[in-house]
């Protein structure tokens, strides 16, 4: 098992302890309403605000609530569709509002954040269907190349949309969940990682799915697809100390095997959910800059390399 006393630095431990004050490990024992209440308060505690100049409005995208971000008055060169994380159970337009605003401010692109339906009231494939509907709306509204992006469960949804559409401009995945829980690799080595354990993942997987009749395909777990050809260029950024770490590596390997372009970055010593540490932890700050650089490159139809991303720091 991993020795987190050596892998995780003091800055990151400070962030972990701060998160646990708002979102203690026993939160998973609450009912869903209780989990959402705790999660929302935690998000509020870490909310960094929107950069000056970012314009924001809410609307419906083919019936799906979305929040649209735009930096400045000129026409954007590209648009990003962002799917938030939260295990398909928690999260909202507000939980990732500052992240989306910062992506828009730093790239100059329009960003559309999707408020997809959540489990357990809305089981799979409801969230996927909402993200796909929002993607089609975004294409029609902006008439621009669409870069798909998301974190954790949202990365799963963004990838699933990319597999269905096969016409996105790029795909940027942050500590993505892309397969089924398995009994090997990071799922075992980091089963008890801070902020996301294997037990947490089992809960999210169970609550997301109906008891019977589920067809597990790429809409459920993109790594289950049998065709990885024709997908957009991908950057997958994984946290080292995360049960999901291997998903990003496995996904990029499958795309490259099919002849596509994919770059996997393993962020040393980082943990699941580190986006909220992007202003306080150096490793998280640099990782978020790599995420922004990948989005920017794909929006401008530029290839991106591992070496280029690793040179990015703030």
Question: Describe it for me?
Answer:
With 314 residues, this protein is an alpha/beta fold. It has a single domain (4-310), classed as Rossmann fold (3-Layer(aba) Sandwich). It has eleven helices and eight strands. It has helices at residues 4-7, 10-22, 32-46, 97-107, 126-142, 153-165, 186-189, 198-208, 245-257, 282-299, 306-310, and strands spanning 54-61, 64-71, 79-83, 110-114, 146-151, 170-174, 234-241, 262-271. The chain is globular, with a radius of gyration of 18 Å.
Keywords:
314 residues; alpha/beta; eight-stranded mixed beta sheet; 11 helices; 8 strands
Average pLDDT, rounded to a whole number, is 96
Distance between the termini: 32 Å
In CATH terms, the superfamily is Alpha/Beta hydrolase fold, catalytic domain
Indicate how many domains the architecture comprises.
1
CATH class: Alpha Beta
Model regions low in confidence, pLDDT < 50 over at least 5 residues = none
According to CATH, what is the topology? Rossmann fold
Number of helices: 11
- What would you report as the Rg, rounded to the nearest angstrom? 18 Å
**Strand tally:** 8
Please list the strands of the largest sheet in the order they lie side by side.
Answer: 1-2-4-3-5-6-7-8
Based on the coordinates given, report the CATH architecture: 3-Layer(aba) Sandwich
The helix/strand series, from N terminus to C terminus, equals HHHEEEHEHEHEHHEHEHH
- From the spread of the alpha carbons, the general shape counts as globular
